[in-house]
Amino acid sequence: xxxxxxxxxxxxxxxxxxxxxxxxxxxxxxxxxxxxxxxxxxxxxxxxxxxxxxxxxxxxxxxxxxxxxxxxxxxxxxxxxxxxxxxxxxxxxxxxxxxxxxxxxxxxxxxxxxxxxxxxxxxxxxxxxxxxxxxxxxxxxxxxxxxxxxxxxxxxxxxxxxxxxxxxxxxxxxxxxxxxxxxxxxxxxxxxxxxxxxxxxxxxxxxxxxxxxxxxxxxxxxxxxxxxxxxxxxxxxxxxxxxxxxxxxxxxxxxxxxxxxxxxxxxxxxxxxxxxxxxxxxxxxxxxxxxxxxxxxxxxxxxxxxxxxxxxxxxxxxxxxxxxxxxxx
Length: 329
Hints:
The chain is α/β, with parallel strands linked by helices. It has helices at residues 11-24, 31-53, 57-64, 72-79, 121-126, 134-149, 167-171, 174-185, 202-206, 227-234, 241-248, 252-257, 276-294, 299-311, 320-328, and strands at 82-85, 98-105, 108-115, 154-160, 192-201, 213-217, 221-223, 263-265. The longest helix is centred in the first third of the chain and has 23 residues, at 31-53. It comes from Caulifigura coniformis.
């Protein structure tokens, strides 16, 4: 993994790590030196935990966008025992912003779909920074229909700032294709597990986000709009993105509270970008557990639960109290 790039709020963490590294480089080791290093390591853990437990929403966004944060292909290599990529949408082309294929995780065969941003400039251009065109969502839907035909569960990794907003995408029916995916995913006859691993931006994320179990990583976010976009609309300038992030309530804790997600997957201390392998272990365990819980259900039960799950999200303000009271009573 490449050297970590410090975020502004991480300066105390990097300062402590620099002190530890400097002490460890000393040629002669004494009991006093060892004790100093031990105390600094304890302070490092304490300070890191304190900082990350108190992150503001805008700081969570910076963690979700961290250049060293593991992306879809990193997880594919770390989690799946086999992966065979399937290309194309049978209509226009192969959108590399969305990857799809057949995969095996332990003894469980699945159809995998994931948004990939790319790590360096060449990769980002190839994958269009994870922003899919209509053909990408059409490719994803084809794979889901294939999964239903062969009785395979679907696993989706969500990581996008949003669907591509260019003229070509609009001409080819971007909004229509995302809407079609929402409708068809709601009734695909196979279990679907969706996980937001980084950014969950608007309809671009929702286009592969209708599932029976929806999870989010601890420092990912899932939102109807980016903070910059929201700030541009409400405050007429993206410099108010931090204010918009506070208002949007899109952090993992908020999403769980509002019933938008079913699970928050804990990240390693200091974020997933600090330990890809440990994050992959936790993510794999979550996927296997979700599939295990869905396996005994009949297709009718799966579809009924999926329908009710999304019907329960949100409510009209004027009768919210009556609905809450009725459910409680």
